[in-house]
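Batch manifest, entry 17 of 40.
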Amino acid sequence: MSVGTPYVPPKIWRNEPRGDNKWANINSPEAGARYEQALPVGEHDLQLYSLGTPNGQKVTIMLEELLALGIEAAEYDAFLINIGEAEQFSSGFVGVNPNSKIPALLDKSGSEAVNVFESASILVYLAEKFEQFLPQGAARTQTFNWLFWAQGSAPFLGGGFGHFYAYADEKQAYPINRFAMETKRQLDVLDKQLAEHTFVSGETYTIADMAIWPWYGNLVLGHLYDAAEFLQVENYRHVVRWATMIEQREAVQRGRMVNRSWGEAWEQVPERHSADDIDKVLALKPA
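Output type: structure tokens
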């Protein structure tokens, strides 16, 4: 189709990959494993298979927060799943998450291993397992409100705005403008909430903050899509205040490094099997 020619959908859609954009071509309309390969297994009860994207950071931040509280049973092995190389379509990974999306967790602590997938489900599972970061009563409902707000809203930021602004082969005004408007609306929703509360769901740090910060916190701090100026994120001063506060937590700094294989050397911990794996990398950070 030549530039400027309107797209007319065919009567029947067909998957016709084109170009060399692996992010546009990696998916398929068919689910399931594409090849046989078992997942590696470490020594801890909790086995995480993930990548240090915002969705992956949610879970590693949660695990590092639990460890910061001294909960030894939250020790975990984190194995890198390179989605650019289609490792999420191995038979082993599909066995843990049939949806072939990171993150995926396997808990071996019981008589039978439990597989947990979808980042919000993992956060709730760990919060209930260790009785942390999920308050009771009305505060629990507010935490769930914002946790599921994130699950419903972030795809418009990531798969919508982020894809068309940063990853699409061609910059197109309509999708960028549509998703930029929605992203700014979401930032305004958060800003109004945070104008009245220290944390997203109230005065307590919860899994709602852990779910929202990797997307919206990274965005307003300039760590996501290089879009801070485009979106004028400084206008959302309450979000910036909150994002800066969360970023200063040691567990957040540690968690966002895990399963990361890009950036500065002191930011990358592709695999994590003990606290030492993070400590050794942090030692490389310039003073």
